[in-house]
Each structure stands twice: as structure tokens, then as C-alpha cells.
């Protein structure tokens, strides 16, 4: 399905993500990596910083709801209804991001902003793997 | 106070995912689909996010320490090893299949799409398994980077 190219809202939204990542460093001295923040809430949970990490995740979850209430605009989404596929995807995303010490936020945004070679390798590998997966799914298997 | 600040940072991050469109798996998959219905928007999301973070980090590091903590917690590992590459490859395959990485999936939870409702618990199980694998393989806990 086609989605509209939206460079301005993409830049603005990206800047907001950057603002949050910068604030996390300036105030808490930490990387805003979603997979690490989430994984360390799971058992055996790290007690230190637990309420802060939980508050961050609750903030994430509240964001689209606040957006809808304040602006009156809907949040447009098209999520696959193939639930088995989504369960498999979720397992891979969760396992891979924690095993590889980061996802789009930790390696992608924060790691690249730190000019970390390790993060650059991670980003190239996950972008490449994701592009190949979408190519196979849409153009070879043709789902 | 500290908790409220982290809540606010999460809220701003989540609004960024909403405004940028990254919360929509179809948009993410179209970014990855260079030979199909390509939508380059996500390149602009990344560019905006990395540019602001880059500047913000330099500003933050001018201070001796962060405002709320005693010191900066910067990931120390520089190893480009099998774990890093294998983890990124597995993550990438899942990202391509579902169009969700961890941030947008969690942020979209309240929108209650059935695909999201099954994706997030599966993701948490995957994360837990990786933590178990990690702590079994080496004594150090999961690095603070993610």
C-alpha cells in the first residue's frame, strides 16, 4: 500500500525525538534507547532507576492518546492483521534488539549522534536485513 | 520530580514518533521497500533526530555532569563482534516483517490495533530471552546502550 511522502512532518517529528534524546543525556546522563529501557524493566528487573524507566515508557504510551485529545486529529496506522506474523516479528525484534544491545533509538539515533562505529555497523546491518526482508516478502513471496 | 521528568521525556519522544509517522508500520515498510512503493520520509526522521541529538549531546557534555545524576552513563563497549551483528540482523528481519521497532510498538499500544496487541507481549518475551542468554554467556548485565 502507498503512503504519502511527508518530509516536513518527518523532520519535525525527528527533531522532537532528538529533543527527547538530548534531554535524556542533559538531565539523566543516559542514552535514550527504548529496547534497553524496556528490557531492564523485565525480571530480574534492575531496581535502580526502575520508576524512572517505567515513567518514560508510560510517557511513550500516553503520547498518541494526548495527541488525539489535544489536536483532534487521528493517528493514522496500518498494522498487519496477520497475528501469527506479528507474534513472530515481535519475538525477533525483542530478541535481536536486546541481544545486539540496541535498536533504532539506541544505535540509530543516539549511537550515530555519538559517532559510535559500533552503532554504525548495527544500523547498516539492521537496515539491510529489514530491506531484504521486505523485498522478499513483497516482491518474491508476494504476500 | 525525577520520575515526572522521565515521563515528560517519554511523552516528547512518543509525540515525535506520532508526528513523524514512524508509528505507522506501513510507512516504515515503504521506507524499506526501495524497489516498490518507496516512501523516503523515514530518512528525514532519522536526519532530524540525529542532527538534534548530535547538537544536544555536545551541549550536554559541556557540563561536568548531568543535571539529575552524578555522572554520565555512556556505553563503554566498542567491540564489533558476532553478538552485535547477529542481534542487529535478527532485529532487522523482525522490523521488516512487522514494520515495528520497539519504540513505535510500545507507543502504539493504546491505539489497540490487534497486530500491536500481540506484537508487544511477543517482543517482551524476546527481550527477556535475550537477557537470559546474555547473562548466561557473560557475567556482566545487558549494557546500558540500547
What do you see in this structure?
- With about 140 residues, chain A is an all-alpha fold.
- Chain A has one domain.
- In chain A, about 70% of the residues lie in helices and about 0% in strands.
- In chain A, helix 5 packs across helix 6 (about 115-140).
- Chain B has one domain.
- Helices cover about 65% and strands about 0% of the residues of chain B.
- Chain B has helices at about 1-20, 25-30, 40-60, 80-100, 100-105, 115-135.
- In chain B, helix 2 crosses helix 4 (about 80-100).
- Classes of the chains: A mainly alpha (about 140), B mainly alpha (about 150).
- Chains A and B meet through helix 1, helix 2, helix 3, helix 4 and helix 5 of A and helix 1, helix 2, helix 3, helix 4 and helix 5 of B.
Q: How would you sum up this structure in a few lines?
A:
The complex is a heterodimer of chains A (143) and B (146). By secondary structure, chain A is mainly α.
Which value, in Å, is the CA radius of gyration of chain B? Answer: 17 Å
Quote the average pLDDT of chain B.
Answer: 93
Based on Cα principal axes, name the global outline of chain A.
globular
Number of domains of chain B: 1
- Category from helices, strands and their pairing of chain A: mainly alpha
Number of strands of chain B: 0
From the structure provided, what is the oligomeric state, counting identical versus distinct chains?
heterodimer
Alpha-beta classification of chain B: mainly alpha
Please render the helix and strand layout as text.
The complex is a heterodimer of chains A (143) and B (146).
Chain A lengths: L6 H22 L5 H6 L10 H22 L11 H17 L4 H10 L3 H24 L3
Chain B lengths: L1 H19 L4 H8 L8 H20 L21 H17 L3 H6 L6 H24 L9
Helix pairs in contact in B: 2-4
